[in-house]
Amino acid sequence: METTLNATMDFAIAKEVLTHLIEGARQTGMYPEEIPTWEEMLRRIPPYQVNQDGAVKEWMHPFFSDNYHHRHQSHLYPVFPGTEVTPESAPELFQAFVVAVKKRLVIGLKEQSGWGLTYMANNYARMGEGDLAQECLDLLSRSCLLNNFFATHNDWRNMGICVDLPWAPFQIDANMGWTAAMQEMLCFSQPGLIKLLPALPRRWARGSVRGLLCRGGITVDISWDMEARSIQVMLQAQKTQSIQLRLPAAIRSAQVDGAPCPGAHGAVLDALQLQSGETCLLKIELEGTSFSD
C-alpha cells in the first residue's frame, strides 16, 4: 500500500534486525564473510527525520505529512518496543520522539482504543512518565476491560473514553501490552544496564515484584518504599557479568550482601559484579525525604 511507503517503523525494524544479526554473528563466530555486507546495509539506512515541529516523522518520505489526529504510533518503534533510542544513547533524538508522542494527544481520549492506551502506557514508561502511564491503564480498565479481564478494542461500557462502537472485539494486544507496561514502569534493561523503577507512579509508593527477567539473563526481585526512600533488590545472573544499575534518585547509601557497595555516584551504581548462578542482595537508601523529591 502506498501509505506504508518509507514508513519510519520499517527502517527501524530493518536497523534492529541487522544490528542484532551482526552482534550475534560476532559473538558466535558465525557467518564472518556476511558481516561486511550486513554492515554496509546498515550504513545505507538513512537517519530518522524530524519535522518542523521537532517531532520524529511517521514517514521518511516527502510526499507524506504527519497526521497528529490518529492514534497509531508505529514510528515510535525505536523507543518502544525497540531499545535503539534512549535518553542516554541519543538525547536530542529521544526528545524528538517525546514530541511525537505529545503531538498525538490532540486526538483526545475518545479517539483512543484498548491497544492504543496500552501502547501509550509503554511509551510513557520508556519516557519516565509513570503517572501518565498509569492513567492510560486506569482508563483502559474503566472502558475496555471485561469481567473476565479480557481487554477489548473499544469502549464497550460507553463511558466516552475511547472508540465507541456497537461491538467490542476481544484484543489480546491490550492484555499483553498491559503487563508489558507494568514491567517497563518497574524495570528497564539493556545488556550491561538495569534501570530500577524508571517510571514509578506516585500511587505505587510502596510495593514489590518478583521474577522480572532482564536482558543479559538476569532475574530481578524488587521491593520498595519510596516514602522511606528505601529499595531492596535481589539479582541472579545466568552468566558472570558486570552491569550498571540506575536508580530513580540520588543514592544516599548502598550495600551489597551486607558490605558497602563501591561505585555509587549520583543515581548510579557502576561496575556491579554478578557471578553466574549466584544471588546478589542490594539494600539502597535514596536521598530526599518524600516520593516527590
Characteristics:
293 residues; alpha+beta; Immunoglobulin-like; 2 domains; 6-stranded antiparallel β-sheet; 5-stranded mixed β-sheet; 6 helices; 11 strands; globular
Secondary-structure map:
Blueprint: H1 8-28, H2 35-44, H3 91-104, H4 114-126, H5 130-143, H6 172-186, E1 187-190, E2 193-196, E3 206-214, E4 218-225, E5 230-237, E6 241-246, E7 251-256, E8 259-260, E9 264-265, E10 268-274, E11 279-286
Parallel strand pairs: 2-6
Antiparallel strand pairs: 1-2, 3-4, 4-5, 5-11, 6-10, 7-8, 7-11, 9-10
Helix pairs in contact: 1-2, 4-5, 4-6, 5-6
Explain what you see.
Helices cover 30% and strands 22% of the residues. The protein is an alpha+beta fold and 293 residues long. It has two domains: 2-183, no CATH class; 191-286, Immunoglobulin-like, CATH 2.60.40.1180. Strand 1 and strand 2 form a beta hairpin. Helix 4 packs antiparallel against helix 5. The longest helix has 21 residues, at 8-28. It is globular. It starts with 7 loop residues before the first helix and ends in a 7-residue tail after the last strand. The mean pLDDT is 93.
Provide a concise account of the structure shown.
By secondary structure, the protein is an alpha+beta fold. It contains 6 helices and 11 strands.
Structural class: alpha+beta
Uncertain regions: pLDDT < 50 for 5+ in a row? none
How many helices does DSSP assign? 6
Count of distinct structural domains: 2
Number of strands: 11
Q: Determine the mean pLDDT.
A: 93
Compute the separation of the termini in Å.
50 Å
Order of helices and strands: HHHHHHEEEEEEEEEEE
Strand order of the largest sheet: 3-4-5-11-7-8
Question: Main beta sheet, described?
Answer: 6 strands, antiparallel
Q: For this entry, what is the oligomeric state of its chains?
A: single chain
Give the % helix.
Answer: 25-40%
How would the global form be characterised?
A: globular
Radius of gyration: 21 Å
In what range is the share of β-strand residues? 15-25%
